[in-house]
Design brief:
Blueprint: H1 2-19, H2 22-31, H3 34-42, E1 52-56, H4 61-68, E2 79-80, H5 86-91, E3 97-101, H6 105-110, E4 118-121, H7 126-151, H8 174-205, H9 207-212, H10 218-249, H11 257-279, H12 285-302, H13 314-320, H14 324-338, H15 342-374
Parallel strand pairs: 1-2, 1-3
Antiparallel strand pairs: 3-4
Length: 375
């Protein structure tokens, strides 16, 4: 009980020190508000309000139907331009897509021929140019198929019809995934930086020498920093989920928030220990920043949140199994997106606990060596 009381009291001291640091408080507030809201609303790679023009050389009922099928919010109202203006319009960057419907388009279809519709794309608009042609092809084919079916002249019938139904995000709004992934990434960076800053702040201010003359154990000092800074991250994440993600952005949270909070606590057990371990390798905050940022970037890019883990080399996949963020990304997506039950995610939680235990033991040995060097 005496050790627990020391850990609790030292944790209160950490919280008071944090609340007196306006820079870290601003970092916490920014990370779970603007840093979540802005990318989910702005940095979306879907086709939205794409500019499109139609060169209608057929002037038939079907060509007008194709033009009328280009609707917001995917595309702006299509402009009709002559064939002679195609090159100039593309050179000036007026339109991302130009659809050229050839002469006798409807007539050739009625005769059973296969006319060609040309789609010209401005590939400098990379996000829209990558997805837009697929959308336009689907729209044009859908209108052609409906026209042929209505006229009773469709001869080629699909042997197999593929019906796609999207679960968990029916409209495939990329902003939903961006918001959740931003929270996952910010959890890692804040947990690392808060615990690392707590150790280095005491070293730079000289208060760690005062603690060493007290009857305190190294593990009491370390676990106090872990629970105090972890508590701040948990509270900030819960507020961000309800106020920013669910409230301001409008992302429905499918799974159990208490279950997510429980897994978050296990993850913070390991990632906060990582932050303390990194702080024992340096002597100042600038050095800590130079060391921590590459670690965080590698965790963010290789944990499966940005790129599926299955797309990476096999050796890298196996290595990332020893990084707790890999299992936390899998756990978070399963709970928040797919409403996973504890039976489905216990393996990820157990792996995070094992990795966290190994990190904590190694960090404790490093922390003891650092304190011994100070003494």
């Amino acid at each position: 009980m005496r050790h627990l009381r020391h850990i609790f009291q030292l944790g209160i001291k950490e919280l008071l020190s944090l609340f007196r640091d306006p820079v870290l408080l601003f970092l916490i507030a920014y990370s779970f508000t603007f840093s979540v809201y802005t990318p989910s609303k702005s940095a979306v790679m879907d086709v939205i309000n794409a500019s499109v023009a139609v060169v209608d050389e057929d002037h038939s009922t079907l060509s007008r139907r194709i033009r009328d099928a280009l609707l917001p919010p995917l595309f702006l109202p299509p402009a009709v331009i002559p064939f002679s203006q195609i090159n100039r319009a593309m050179d000036e960057g007026k339109y991302t897509f130009i659809i050229d419907i050839p002469p006798k388009f409807e007539h050739d279809l009625n005769r059973g021929l296969k006319p060609t519709v040309e789609l010209i794309t401005d590939a400098t608009a990379m996000s829209q140019a990558g997805r837009g042609p697929g959308y336009l092809q689907k729209i044009i084919l859908n209108e052609v198929n409906q026209y042929l079916s209505t006229e009773g002249r469709r001869k080629d019938r699909d042997l197999v019809r593929l019906v796609t139904r999207a679960r968990f995000n029916p409209n495939m709004q990329q902003g939903w995934f961006v918001a959740i992934n931003q929270i996952i990434n910010n959890i890692s960076v804040l947990a690392i930086f808060l615990t690392g800053a707590a150790v280095l702040r005491e070293r730079e201010h000289g208060t760690i020498e005062h603690l060493l003359v007290m009857p305190l154990s190294p593990y009491e000092l370390m676990f106090a920093k872990i629970w105090a800074n972890g508590l701040v991250v948990v509270v900030a994440v819960m507020l961000s989920l309800y106020l920013v993600v669910k409230g301001a952005i409008g992302v429905p949270i499918a799974g159990s928030v208490p279950l997510f909070a429980g897994g978050l606590v296990v993850y913070l057990f390991s990632v906060t220990a990582l932050g303390i371990m990194l702080s024992t390798l340096v002597r100042s905050m600038p050095q800590f920043g130079l060391l921590a940022f590459p670690v965080f970037i590698a965790m963010s890019l290789l944990s499966g949140g940005q790129t599926p883990l299955e797309s990476m080399p096999i050796l890298l996949q196996r290595f990332m199994q020893f990084v707790p963020s890999t299992h936390f990304v899998s756990f978070s997506q399963a709970v928040l997106f797919r409403n996973a039950t504890p039976v489905m995610i216990w393996r990820d939680v157990f792996k995070m606990f094992l990795i966290g235990s190994a990190y904590t033991l190694f960090t404790l040995s490093r922390f003891r060596k650092m304190l011994a060097a100070i003494q």
